[in-house]
Amino acid sequence: MQRWLLRGAALAIPALLLTLATAGQPATMPEIKIGTVLPLTGAFGASGNYFKQGYTMAIDDVNKAGGLAVGGQKYQVSLTVLDDGSDGTRSRSLVEKLVTDQHVNFLLGGYDTSLVEAQEVVPDQYKIPYVEGGGAASEIFKRGYKYVFGTLATVYDMGKITMDFIAYEISQGKLPKPVSLAVVWENTDHGKDYINAVLDQAKAHPDLFKVVLNQSFQLNGSDFSPLLQQVKASNATVFLSDAHLPDFITMHRQYLQAGMHHELVSYGARGPDQKGRQALGPGADYLIAALWWTPALKDPASQLFTDRYTKEYHAVPDWFQALSYDTARVLLQAIRNAGTLQGPAVRDALARGVFRNALVPGGVIRFGPNGQIAGSPYVMVQNMPGNTVRIVWPRKLPETRDAILPMPRMQ
Amino acid sequence: MLTAPNLISVGIAALLTAGLYAVMSYGLAIIYGVMKVINLSHAGFLMLGAFMTLVYFQRWHLDPLLGALLNLPVFFAAGWVLYAVLVRRVMTSLPIASLLLLFALWLVLQNVALAIWGSEDQSIITAYTYKALPVLGFRIPLTRLLVFGVALATLGVLHFVLGHTYVGKALRATVQDPQAGVLVGIDTERISAVAFGLGTAFAAFAGSLLTLLFSFTPDFGGPFQLKSFTIIVLGGLENFAGVTVGAAILSFVESYAVLFMKASLQNVIAYALLVVALIVMPGGVAQLWTRSRS
User: Fold this and answer.
1) What are phi and psi of A339, to 5 degrees?
2) Of A31, A58, A152, B225, which residue is least crowded by CB atoms under 10 Å?
C-alpha cells in the first residue's frame, strides 16, 4: 500500500509542478505549417529570395494580427523554406520531404516554370493544396492536377499582349507597317508559350507583323554573341526575347556591347527588375516589358505594398515580391474560407474563391478550371532614365502614358 | 543568312571569342601538363577572380584590367598555399582522389562566395563597357577587343617565360618527362607548386577579364570550365600552343554552327567536340602536328 502511495506521489508531483508552472500562461496557439521550396541559390537565387520575402510578409501580416482564424480557432502560421539550388530534381524531392518529414499542411510554389513543373507532381499525391506565383507556362496547367493553383497569367498571354501593344504603336505611326520582328526565346515551356503567341498573332495579322528571325536559345546560357549576330543580320525593326533574369542581363549586355539598336526591344517580363537595372545601368533604359505587377500602379493596395516593402527591405519591389505576397495571401484566405485544415476542403475553397484586394492589375484573383488565374492581368511598362518605369499599356489605366518609340539610341 | 558581311562579321566575333577562350584555358593546361591533374576547381577560381575584381572595383575604383593584373600575384600565392596544404597530399594517390578533392574545393569556393556576396547577379560597368569601335564597316565591341589583346599579350609572355627562363624550361621539362627532370636536378615538387600557383593565377586572371563581358554569380564558371576542358583536349592536353588552336576551333565551330542549327544547341557543340576529339584524336591537334612532321 505504501509502495502504491509512493508511486502515485512520484507521478502526481511532477504533473502538479508542471500544471503550476504553466498556470497563468496563455495556452499555446495551434500551428498551421506552410512549406515552400525556393531557389535561394543557383541561377534563380535572386528571384527565389524575392519570393521568400513576399511569402514572409504575407505570413507576418497574419501572425501580427493574432493568427489565422479557421473554423472559430486561431492558428499561428509558420513557414518552412528549403533551398533547391535551382535544381529541378532536388526541388521535387524537397517538396516531398516537406510533406513526409516536416508534415506541412499546405504548400507555396517555387520559381521558375521549370522548377514549378518539377514540384507540381507532389501536391495531388498527398492531396495538399499548392499555390504558386512563379511559373507562368500554360503547360503547368495542362497536366490535369487538381491541387495546383497559379496566380500568374500565362506566358502565352504575355506574348499576345506584347503584340497588341506593338499593333497599337503601329497604328500610332511610331513603328512601320508591317513591322519586322526578330524573336529569340529560351528553349523551355516558358519560351514556347511566348513564341507560339507571337507566331499566332503574326499569322492572324500578316499586314502588321513579319517574323524575320525565330531562334531558340538554351536557358542559363553563358554566351549569346553568335545568336545576337543573327539578330543583327536579320535587320529587324523590333527585337523580342523571352528570357529569365540571368539570361536577360547577359544577353542585353552583349547586345549593347555589340552596338546593336532596334526601334523596340522587349525581353518579355524582364527589364524593370531592380537587379537588371543595377547590372545594366543606363543600358536598360527604354526597354519595354510585360509585367504581372509594377510599383508604377497607383491603386491603394499597390502603393501600400510598395511603401511597406521599401521601408522593410530598403529597396523598390519588383513583381516577384508582389506576386509572391499575393500568392501567400490567396492561400491564407482560402484556408480561412474553408474553415478547416483539410486539404480537399481548402482545394475547393481555392477553386471557387474570388480573392479581392489583390495586387495584380484589376485587383481580383480567381482561378479557372485548370487552376491557372482567370483573365490576363498584365501591364506593359517602359523603363525610363533614373530607375523609373511608366505604364504604357493597356490604355484604359489612368496612369498609362505614351511610350517613347522608336527607342532612343544609347549614347 | 549566308551573306558575305554576315559571314565576315561572325568570323570576327569568333576570333575575338577565341582569345577569351584561350586565356581561360591556359591555367587548366599548365596544371594538367605538369601534374597530370584535372583541376575541377578551375571554375571556382574563375568565379573568385571575378568577385575579387568586383571588390577592387567597388573599393578602389580599380579597372577590371588592372584588377586582372592584381589577381595574378594574389592567386599565385593562394594556389601555392593550396598546393602545399591540400593538393600535394593526394598527388601520389589514385587520380580519383585529386578529382574529388578539387571538385570539393570548387563547392567550398562556391559556398564561401555565396556566404559573402549572396546569390544575386553582379556586374561591373566601366566607361567603355558599351563602347564599340567601327572597323571596316563592322562594329566591334571594345571590351572583346581588349580581352583579345590581353589574351595575345598573355600568350606572348607565357611563350617567353616558358622558353627563356629557368622556371619555364623546368616546367616544360617536367611536362615532357618528369623522371628525366628529376635526373637533371629539377625540384619537381617545387615546379608542381609553381604550376598550381600559375594555373590558379591564370584562372583568376581570366575571371577578371570575363567581368568585362558577363555578369556573374557564385555559380559562374561551370560552362567555361567545360569549354576550357574541351579546348585543352582539342589542343593536346600538354601543349600550350595547342590551347590557342583548340580555343580557335571551338569558337569558330560554335559561332558558325548557329547559322545552320538552333542556338539552344550551342553547348552541345562543346560536348560533341570533346567526344569526337577523345575518340578520333586523343592527342589533339598536337598529335596531328607530330604526325605531319614524322
Assistant:
1) 70, 15
2) A31
Residue A19 has pLDDT above 50, yes or no: no
Q: pLDDT value at position A17?
A: 46
What rounded mean pLDDT belongs to chain A? 91
The arrangement of strands across the sheet holding A130-132 comes to A68-70, A73-83, A31-38, A106-108, A130-132, A148-150
Mapped onto helix, strand or coil, the DSSP state of residue A50 is helix
B132:A259 CB<8 A: yes
Q: Which of A43, A234, A278 has its CB closest to that of B219?
A: A43
What integer pLDDT is reported at residue B279 of this predicted model? 84
**What is the Cα–Cα distance from A176 to B267, expressed in whole angstroms?**
36
Alpha-helical (H) ranges within A133-241 are 155-171, 189-204, 225-233
Is position A130 within any domain? yes
What pLDDT does residue B222 have? 85
Point out the residue among B139, B144, B267 whose CB comes nearest to the CB of A218.
B267
What pLDDT is attached to residue B262? 80
My answer on whether A265 and A316 are in the same domain is: no
Tell me: do A319 and A275 sit in the same domain: no
Nearest-by-Cβ selection for B215 from A229, A250, A259: A250
Q: In this model, does residue A345 exceed pLDDT 90? A: yes
In a domain, A404, yes or no: no
Q: Is the pLDDT of residue A411 over 80?
A: no
Choose the mutation target among A53, A229, A270, A275 for the interface with B, i.e. most B CBs under 10 Å.
Answer: A229
- At A185 the pLDDT is 96
Gap between the Cα atoms of A263 and B19, Å rounded: 32
pLDDT score at B6: 81
Q: Is residue A107 part of a domain?
A: yes
The answer to whether the CB of B251 falls within 8 A of the CB of B240 is: no
Q: Identify which has the larger pLDDT, A38 or A112.
A: A38
Q: Which chain B residue has the Cα nearest residue A46? A: B120
For residue A274, list chain B residues with Cβ-Cβ distance below 8 A.
none
The domain total for chain B is 1
Cα–Cα distance, A221 to A229 (Å, whole number): 15
Q: Which residues of chain B have pLDDT under 50?
A: none
Q: What is the pLDDT of residue B215?
A: 86
Predicted confidence (pLDDT) at residue A192 exceeds the cutoff of 50: yes
Interface confidence: ipTM more than 0.90: no
pLDDT at A7: 55
Domain that holds residue A48: 31-152+299-352
Task: Give the range of the structural domain holding residue B171, as residue numbers without chain letter.
Answer: 4-293
Q: Is B272 on the interface with A (CB under 8 A)?
A: no
Of B139, B215, B266, nearest to A249 by CB-CB distance is B215
B219 interfacial to chain A (CB closer than 8 Å): yes
Q: Residue A31's pLDDT is what?
A: 95
Q: Is residue A68 part of a domain?
A: yes
Count of domains for chain A: 2
| Residue A32 cell numbers, joined | 498551421
CB contact B107 to A (< 8 Å): no
Cα separation, A184 vs A254, in Å, equals 14
User: Could B119 and A42 be called an inter-chain contact, meaning their C-beta atoms sit closer than 8 Å?
Assistant: yes
Residues of chain A neighbouring B10 (CB-CB closer than 8 A): 226, 229
Q: How many Å apart are CA A328 and CA A242, to the nearest integer?
A: 26
- Judged by CB atoms closer than 8 Å, whether chains meet at A45 and B217 is answered as yes
